[in-house]
Amino acid sequence: MSNLKRGLSPAASPSSKRARTSPAFRPKKIATVDAAAAVDSDTPLSKLLKVVEDVGKKSKATESVVYWMRMGDLRIKDNRALSLASAHAKKADVPLVVVFILSPQCYKAHDRAPRRIDFTLRNLALIKASLQKLHIPLRTITEPNRRVIPHQIISFLEHLNASAIYANIEYEVDELRRDIEISKAAREKDIDAIFTHDKCVVEPGVVLTKEKRAYSVYSPYQKAWLKTLNANIPHFLENYPEPHPNSESVHTMAKFGALFDSLVPESVVGFELDPADRAKMEQVWPAGETAANEILQRFLHTKSRSSQLAAVDPLAEGAEDSVKRSRISVYDAERDRADKDTTSRLSPYLAAGVISARACVRATMPDTKNTTKKVDGGRWVQEVAWRDFYVCILAGFPRVSMGRPFQEKYADIVWEGPVLEGAYTDNQQERLNPKAKLPLATAESHIEKWKTGWCRTGYPIVDAGMRCLNEMGWAYLHNRARMICAMFLVKHLMIDWRIGEKYFMEKLIDGDLASNNGGWQWCASTGVDACPYFRIFNPYSQSLKADPTGDFIRHFVPELAAVRGPDLHNPPPSVADKLGYPRAIVKHEDSRDRALRRFKNPGEA
Ligand SMILES: Cc1cc2nc3c(=O)[nH]c(=O)nc-3n(C[C@H](O)[C@H](O)[C@H](O)COP(=O)(O)OP(=O)(O)OC[C@H]3O[C@@H](n4cnc5c(N)ncnc54)[C@H](O)[C@@H]3O)c2cc1C
Description:
One of its GO terms (molecular function) is DNA binding. The protein is mainly α. The protein has helices spanning 16-21, 33-41, 44-51, 80-92, 104-109, 114-133, 149-159, 173-188, 218-231, 233-236, 254-257, 275-284, 289-301, 331-334, 347-351, 357-363, 379-396, 426-432, 440-453, 460-469, 479-492, 497-507, 513-523, 539-546, 551-556, 573-579, 588-600, and strands at 64-69, 96-102, 138-142, 162-168, 192-196, 419-420, 437-438.
């Protein structure tokens, strides 16, 4: 990246050269049972929290305080770590500096969608401009080798003679381990590394069972979550103040002035969008906190519209105000409809932290200052609680992010299709599907063809959903359609849920490991509080409920644009043949029998 060489550059990392020339980076995805159990028994989050227990007690002379912005907290308002860093800098009367590390390897390891990376960069550019007005520099660093990020950060802090670095916690295993390493290295240099919870309304580790474990069933979790929240609203829904401006003189200070020259790149190598797609994404998912807040306000105060079906401007004119028929007021009854904007469509903004989950809950309350008022726990707030729930699962049972099913008894289910060599440990690969083990290149091209097939299954609701994600669509999918597609892939086609999970992450603009893994494991019946394995929906009947007008299917499956009535959801072979639409690739009843057999007898085909 051109900006690597601009302005202040931390000392070159020892192995970054090696990383650039190393062979393709292929992180392994499935841990062994023992490795996963070991991580669950002493979680990286609890280790990090122990390491940082005694920070903030030093009084080192300082020239600056640093806030490390991450992919999940792209905002200035109500940002806990940023707010705390700013207060620290003000008290010490030193400049606040913001740093953002772009890591293509992390993006690859997490299967990030190019559209998600583009969304990140668009938001960062706006943040940089806003911080500039406060005389706060935002320095972006592109680091090709993720292993050296701790070294990069420490040398950056040393260069700025910073006494403290603040960041909001990322709950993924690799990121927690990285932060543990940074905490230890920072301590050796007498620098405080302060990691704060910010992603959830109620952070992991607070809502626990009687046995002091994370809940693995949603209903009791949600009740306890609401009770905990309502018992201390000022704490859980605190609106963290925006950062104080730096003194204007920071621009002329040798160490800091050059930081303002650091540019937010237009793209990250390997995650570029073509210009037309970028323009479309700019329109459909406008960047910035103002846009996020307006989208929230639309959801709270205006009616849903069938014109808002797909890749359109969420803030397009014509929204009609209504108290009784606003989207949130009728959310309980209408949220499963994929044929209009019945839900908030805030997930990309929540996943990227462009808006805080706290702000979303606060907005549902008439007056947060009046502590006698409670969060009502209506259906929409319960969905925000689902998001917290899955973060707690990831933090409390990190095995789920190591390619393991939450319910180990289903680890040996035989899935169909090719197995991507290098994505699994050897014994797991054998167990998944010994006959289908293919050389990497063949498997990858096979999987590519296979994925194309997922848009032509002959089940219109599935094809519409899968097309909604890809180039034709808008990198987003309505929750009910996500469930129908994921269930179809895992139960009807017996696709390994990990392959589906990866595919969604590679496409979604709201891709989030905790929610995506939770959603896939729920559909695959392998997860926490999952759908029972014998609940195998008929996609046709699901289609009638999710898309009663048929507009969703007609939009994404143009082959069927002229079809009306029930044929749209279940085209008879003669209709399909005439319109060039594929016949159903599997029979519901046959697939159902196969899935039941395999779930009853894990390990048998
Ligand atoms: C297979 C599968 C994969 C999924 N992958 C993701 C993902 O990568 N990222 C993601 O943010 N969500 C994911 N979800 C959850 C859900 O589909 C989306 O959050 C939702 O569709 C977003 O639309 P919205 O913002 O209009 O939601 P709304 O209905 O307006 O809900 C408000 C917010 O609550 C949260 N939420 C709602 N439903 C869920 C849920 N079931 N689980 C967790 N949080 C929820 C989201 O943050 C959402 O923005 C997945 C669900 C499934 C079934």
